Amino acid sequence: ALIVGQIASARRLKKLFSIDVKEPDRIAIAGKVQTVCFDKTGTITKDGLDFSGVHTAAQNQFESDTAALSPHIVKGMASCHSLAMLGGSFVGPQVEIEMFKNSHCNLSSEGKFTRIQSKDGKHDLQVLKKFKFDHRRMTMSVVVQDNVEQETMAYVKGAPEVILKLCKTSSIPPDIEKRLAEYSLHGNYVLALSSKQCAIEAGAEELDRDAVESELTFLCLILFRNEIKPSSPSAFAKLREGEIGRAH
Asked: Count of CB atoms within 10 A of residue 11's CB?
């Protein structure tokens, strides 16, 4: 009976409104929808994403002041990206640009290596190996030499649901999945960042990606928002007043 009802509804939609229904089982859900808003970035919302802050693993709380972040979070934000400098400007994804800017570091190239130095002089990093973002893995990673701490670290960022599976359970706050769901529900674009100490014996070029991206320590969730333009609410009000899009 349900299937017959869906088929009959699809035929009526085709006949009366020229609507070609590809998935008839969705009609019952569509019948409950009263308002649909379509947005292309840069129309209703701003052109790019804004850095919102991080949810740290150590304190298990949201922190908007990047000056209060742990050194490893700062170094991960400063190094785990695919950015380059061209004519004094950053070249790369907007998300990574915003993340790097909030690490308060400087980026430069030295031969085939990328060097990152914090503006306060606390961090001096050299990127030895970079595994670019992989859509199948949903991760990217870097191996860096910390010339201040004299240690080699791997930093891995990516989709939270993937990173959490790669991290040691002991490093993950017990309610992090609940927090992640809340942040996503409230319109945040979320990345996860993790780290581990990395031993280089045969040279950075010989490092295996699977080995680097395993047994990680969870560091934080990094939050971004695509905020609505200041002019959008008044535009919506005018559309409502003019009854634009209202069915008669």
From this structure: 12
Q: Is 193 exposed, middle or buried (0-12, 13-18, 19+ CB in 10 A)?
A: buried
Distance CA 131, CA 213 (A): 10
Take residue 133 and report the two structure tokens written for it.
């973002």
Total residue count of the chain as it appears in this document: 248
Cα gap 190→225, rounded to integer Å: 9
Token duo for residue 115? 């060097």
Q: How much is the pLDDT for 202?
A: 63
* Cα–Cα distance list, 203 to 142, 143, 199, 207 (Å): 14, 11, 9, 7
CA 212: distance to chain centroid?
20
Q: What are phi and psi of 33, to 5 degrees?
A: -80, 130
195 neighbors 158 (Cβ within 8 angstroms): no
The pLDDT, as a whole number, for residue 239 is 83
Q: For 151-197, what is each residue's pLDDT tens digit?
A: 999 999 999 999 999 999 999 999 999 999 999 999 999 999 999 99
Q: What are the DSSP calls for 15-62, one per residue? A: HHH----S-GGGHHHHTT--------TTTSB-SSPEEEEEEETTTTEE
